[in-house]
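User: Structure tokens for this complex, please. No commentary.
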Amino acid sequence: MVSLDRRQLLTLAGGLGAAAFSGGLLSGCRSSGGATTLPGIGDAMATRIDYGRAKAVPTICFGCTTHCGVIGWVQDGRVRQIEGNPKDPNTEGAICGKAQGVIQATYDPQRVVYPLKRVGKRGEGKWRRATWEEAMTEIGGKLKTLRDEGRPEELVFHYGRDKTKGFTSRWTDAFGTPNRLNRRSICSSNRRVPLMSMYGREFEWESQDLERTNYVVNFGGNPMEAYQGGLFMIRRLMDARVDRGAKLVTFEVRPSATASISDEFHTVHPASDGAIAMAMAHVILREGLQDTAFWNTWANVDLDTIREQVKDYTPEWAEGVSGVPADDIARIAVEFAKAAPACCTMSNRGSAKHYNGVQADRAIRMLDVLVGNVGKPGGFCLSTLRMWKNRYGQWGLPVIDQPGPKPSKPKPWRPGTREFEMLPADVQERVAAFPEMWQKKYFGELATPSEYPLSWHWYNMRVGQLVYPYIREGRQKVGAYISYTLGAAFGYPEANVAREVLMDEKLVPLHVAIDISYSEQAALADWILPDATALERWDAHSTNNYGLRPYTGIRQPLVEPLGEARPAQIILRDLARAIGGGMEDHFDFEDLEDYYREWYAEVPGDWETLKREGIWTDPERPLDHELYLREVPAEELVNHSVDPETKIVTADKGSKRVAVGIELDGKIVRGFDTPTRRITVQEPLYPLAAAHVGLPLDDINALELPTWGPVPEHVDLAEDRFVLTTFKWNVHTQGRSAGWKYSSEIVHTNPVFMNPKTARTLGLDEGDEVTLTVFRPAQHTYRAGEDEPVGTFTQRVRLLERVHPKVVAVSHHMGHWEQGNVARADMETPSKGEAGFGAECDADVTDRVWWSKKRGGSGGGRHLNDALPINPTPLVGGQSWFDNVVAIEKA
Ligand code: SF4
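Assistant:
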């Protein structure tokens, strides 16, 4: 056995990959010093595409979560170029610059392409190449033991980006663990909850009709840089602005790319979006500009109650909170309401990732209900979204569902069950006091943390940033941990906690990483199983549609996986077979294409056409305007009855009685996916959840109606304290793209953006080095109120007008210490002539990282995330990324 350190591992990843492909794929790649080389993107780009010979294959990009339909050009067995697929109704053929990064990720000479087994201490960076057979036997054997011993819940499957559309949940269900964890709290849970609480589970994401809109009020949304669906949105919005003079108004704490191209950009105090929205509601009602008929028909609370609720939220009051002049707030409210129904709100993490973010988004969403633009052309639309939500065919769409036999779901951890009895006493007490609706959904503290019941009320969004502290505290025992494309050890708040827990073999006896690159997370594994990239695999595809016409598509392999990499579905299938005990019955397929063909059996047209076109849609289908007014078809009205008071219509569905619609003007229409079939502006779940977790009922987060309250630690912020906000760049996909050479050549560092006035006050100038010390939040969150700072980091100042004077802004996905030369910007290994491989394949990666310190450059930026506090918003658990209070000192 030969043991290798990280330096040699990267060598291995490249060199051995080459050995396996020395025939076909390596035709254009030279070797050096006798070693065969792995094909690198630099080499792939060296010759022009010959469109006469190249083959165009449609697929779905996975450069980010927008998931655009694209066409890959393949020549000589290698993907050369990505273009847009004009058949994708969301993009209509547009793509962004990051799409080419997927090619680079595929041909990265430092990519992991063989199963690797740790041979040193965990985290020491010593590995050896293993066979798949050995990996499956050893890992499968250990997982089998957990299952055979009746403790399957000790397996934790934690993913970062899982777009297998239910394949991994099939696997964890078959294994018997509820612990399929995600990163939704890091990302979008705070903005999904307001939508689901108002419109129901079906509508967790909106599809504003930007193509037809005349007016958009944007509360911190940033589709020009980083927004799920941003490309779809901004293209439509730009068309509307050019064609009809539609207006975009943005409230932001810094001049983001979206703020900068807006017709109006107002710099606001952090976490004041909800205050502005409440004041706009005040003005709309004061001026009588509301759509009373719409409100009275569809809102679950009367207008007088809302008038009372917003009466003190005047524009003058909001000016004091946000810094936006009262006259502007009032004018924008009037312009917005007068543009109705062809107007809409827009918001994303900018408004939602705060202590008060859930309430802020509720207030913002209430504006749409007030002016009656919901579902209207040019308004705030809720499309039928993912065809995957359409399991019952209720929208007249083909049902797209995985082939059987499906495993049953794990059973909830009710009082009296073995799993429940193993929980800490205080947790048992809290859960036992929960209402029945939550007891039926409770699966332990990792999957359904009892202190955050609204993170799993509608569906399991989890609170990923608490997983590691909870494991360390012993809230749940872990027998094995699988990281699937997860970057917690780098990108989570207090990422050092994730690393400490993953390093501890008593807490995590087995850690398996399924990944493409040698990430910081994978570096702490016992096994690394190499996944196929988006260009080498099959995946089902669905996303919300901004064209308001449902569609689906298929991700298909353009080339074979490099080296011995395998698609995650094959890795999981083989693990299921190694574990056995009936688990393998749910993975009874040999060929992934056959599996997906069966999965798509109900999609009209034949499979070959879908593969050729990449996308299926029904061009004759009416657009998804006013879905709530669609009549419920007769076949759904089995033994139906209408409640005389609420007008809710219930009917038989199999053995159950379910609500199917609401009676309106003598017709039975769909309504919304809520208990009342109306829009839940007044939501009793918030105070209910607060009462059960001990949050004071007068806290901002516990109130039934939309409201606004400050972030506790921002109140009376001292003169020498500032709010640190983080952001993402448009050429990067968080930390995942740091190894993409073109993206990193454009953006490879993360200065501290600061208003020049602030800099003057602090005696700072452009380029000065400063140290930021980050403090813990004040209340109702993880380790709240502790005096000890969370951490510090040092970086250079960059002066930028129109950053809020009390804000500093730093992007938070730089400063890698793994993931290859480009991500680390250190050209440490392999370097040309030293390792004797790879260099000739892509000298860009090995020798031309001009921003490396070795070359006198700035290096790869600073890692921030150890210094950012774990800070879940009460009840929902979304990370309050933008509330950080910092002190700034010249370094
Ligand atoms: S927006 Fe995302 S999915 Fe679309 S082309 Fe760019 S990287 Fe790919």
